[in-house]
Amino acid sequence: MANKVNLYVHEILNKVSAKNKKADKIQLLKEHESFELKTILQGTYNPNVKFLLPEGDPPYTPNEPQSIPSTLGKQLKKMLYFVAPKGNDVNKIKRETIFIGLLEAIHPEDAKLILQMKDKKPFKGISSAVVKEAFPNILP
């Protein structure tokens, strides 16, 4: 694969949203395929992924983009605490505390994506059909 620029997931989704043609959106998603991107898309568009977190935004302090202590990739490993079945083993308060810690550890724009994903709000200009065509294995 060619040497691609590493973009934040929010930057990739903004680029995809800006495209007008479905084929261009799919191509761009495939070009930027990553664990992080696919996890966010699967969590958002796969109806079988049910989050064990309350709707709406929790009280958290967004990080400064220039001083983020962690990456989305590292933090996504905690995602299993927020969905069944593994999440059922975690106390509700503990689960929400872990979630707030995740949001505060990553880029503030990626934190917004996580909140959007949790509430199952599709990304502007990106349909489930586009996601399914780009990554058929992450949607039913």
Whole-angstrom Rg? 15 Å
Distance between the termini: 28 Å
Question: What would the average pLDDT be, to the nearest integer?
Answer: 91
What is the strand content?
under 5%
For the record, the count of structural domains works out to 1
- Give the overall form: globular
The SSE order reads HHHHHHH
Please state the structural category: mainly alpha
Architecture overview:
By secondary structure, this protein is mainly α. The chain has one domain (9-138). It is built from seven helices and no strands. It has helices spanning 9-18, 22-31, 35-45, 72-75, 92-105, 108-118, 128-134. The longest helix is centred in the last third of the chain and has 14 residues, at 92-105. The protein is globular and about 45 Å long.
Notable characteristics:
single chain, 140 residues, mainly alpha, 7 helices
SSE inventory with pairings:
Layout: H1 9-18, H2 22-31, H3 35-45, H4 72-75, H5 92-105, H6 108-118, H7 128-134
What's the quick description here?
The protein has helices at 9-18, 22-31, 35-45, 72-75, 92-105, 108-118, 128-134.
